[in-house]
Write a structure and sequence with these properties.
heterodimer, A: Rna Polymerase Sigma Factor, Chain: A, Arc Repressor Mutant, subunit A, 2 domains, B: alpha+beta
Chain lengths: 194, 248
């Protein structure tokens, strides 16, 4: 993998995701079905975590999956795994949506919800996600409280780090640092190599 | 390196920066390989956070996506002469090198309608022809280099740039296509951006539509493109319209 590895990239599953994506770039619909099978669940899941609203999450997931089809030729394996490429796109789209003006009114209510929510308690269990979920839950538990809250609010909540700082009543610089060292600790715990 | 900027990697990966901070960080990222490596790792980590949230998608999502992709044209790879880009995507696998070699000559011919040598304005016609021959050779050698990689980026004002780089040869071929026409007295200028600074990669002639060969990449990590006064500038004077990372 051009010197880049991740825990996923070392498995046959991820290698095949990348080769499927390569075939998608050549217009292969069957390869797209494979990509859909592996990524639709996580894409929908992350959109739903960020947006909460199932209808909006589905719209975002649909956009992202079509975008994967449309831009498959631009995926560059030298920059990271296919999974990270797709899920970065999905998260960015969901966050864009949540930050758009029409979503503004819903946000205040969500803030309170998120603060009391334990991670993953409302997520529908999907078999293929169970292992990832267990590992992530385990590793999130290994973070400090502030790291965990910062990462959870920023990533799953779709908040800017200044909003996270406000919600947690913590200095901006601290949140910035906790996001970085929290993710770095997750990386080490999850065995995402560099 | 500014530790303040560097510490934004986590917030960046979580899409937790305000738009202006994000733009500033991305400019920094283009010149900070350490940050880029960290961002790549943290992105893989964040992807696992997303995977952990996976839900079973309803059947109607598949139906909706299928209906849309049936009428959605795929964007081409960022080289207009063949699936170079798509092939480069598969660079982790051996078959790509075979393809690369096989397609090399056609691609070399296509890329070798040469416009300039970096830093040197070509004045007379015989020189141009000689340069063209030399470029054709350089490009075919680049294509066959075991560490040849390509990357592409879009130009914010229209068009795309593609770089084919070999670190072992310390050379790169840069091609641009579809650039917006500039007002008289303006020209596109290439820049080689690396930890030791930014140096000119030469001014593109007004008709630039093809490849430029750069020798002596040094520590340059990014190709920049700006709009400058026709004669070129010693340092960029406008915001880059393209930042094209070169594979390290």
């Amino acid at each position: 993998m051009l010197g880049r590895t991740s825990s996923k990239a070392d498995t046959g599953e991820e290698a095949s995701l990348e080769s499927h994506l390569h075939r998608v770039a050549l217009g292969d619909r069957e390869a797209f079905d494979e990509v859909y099978g592996q990524l639709a669940g996580p894409i929908l899941g992350v959109a739903r975590r960020v947006l909460r609203d199932p209808a909006q999450a589905e719209e975002v997931a649909q956009e992202v999956l079509v975008e994967i089809w449309r831009t498959a030729s631009r995926f560059d394996a030298a920059r990271g795994s296919a999974r990270a490429w797709a899920l970065t796109m999905a998260h960015a789209r969901a966050v864009d949506r949540v930050r758009s003006a029409d979503a503004a009114t819903r946000r205040e209510a969500r803030a309170a919800e998120l603060m009391v929510e334990a991670p993953f308690d409302q997520v529908v269990e999907a078999v293929e996600a169970r292992l990832d979920r267990q590992r992530v839950r385990h590793c999130l538990e290994g973070l400090t409280e502030l790291q965990r809250q910062s990462v959870t609010l920023a990533y799953y909540g779709g908040y800017t780090y200044s909003q996270v700082a406000h919600l947690l009543d913590t200095p901006l610089g601290t949140v910035k640092t906790r996001l970085r060292d929290g993710l770095a600790r997750l990386r080490d715990c999850l065995g995402v190599g560099g | 390196m500014d530790p303040e900027v560097h510490s934004l990697t986590g917030a960046y990966v979580c899409h937790a920066l305000e738009p202006d901070e994000r733009a500033a960080f991305e400019r920094h990222l283009a010149q900070c390989p350490t940050c880029a490596a960290e961002v790549a790792e943290l992105r893989e980590t964040a992807a696992l956070l997303a995977s952990a949230a996976a839900e079973t998608p309803p059947a109607r999502l598949k139906a909706a996506v299928d209906a849309r992709i049936a009428v959605t044209r795929q964007i081409p790879p960022l080289v207009d002469h063949g699936p170079l880009r798509a092939s480069a995507s598969a660079s982790a696998r051996p078959p790509r090198r075979r393809w690369f070699a096989a397609a090399g000559w056609g691609l070399a011919a296509a890329m070798a309608v040469v416009v300039a040598v970096l830093g040197i304005r070509v004045s007379d016609q015989q020189n141009q022809i000689d340069q063209a021959r030399q470029h054709s050779t350089t490009i075919s050698q680049l294509l066959s280099a075991p560490d040849a990689h390509s990357d592409s980026a879009s130009v914010s004002t229209g068009g795309t740039g593609t770089v084919l780089v070999s670190r072992s040869r310390d050379e790169a071929a840069i091609s641009v296509a579809g650039l917006a026409r500039l007002a008289p007295g303006k020209a596109y200028q290439l820049w080689m951006i690396g930890p030791s600074g930014t140096r000119s990669g030469g001014v593109l002639p007004a008709t630039a539509s093809d490849s430029v060969v750069a020798h002596g990449l040094g520590d340059a990590l990014t190709i920049g493109l700006t709009v400058e006064p026709a004669g070129g500038s010693t340092q960029p004077t406008t915001t880059p319209v393209m930042l094209l990372p070169m594979p390290a």
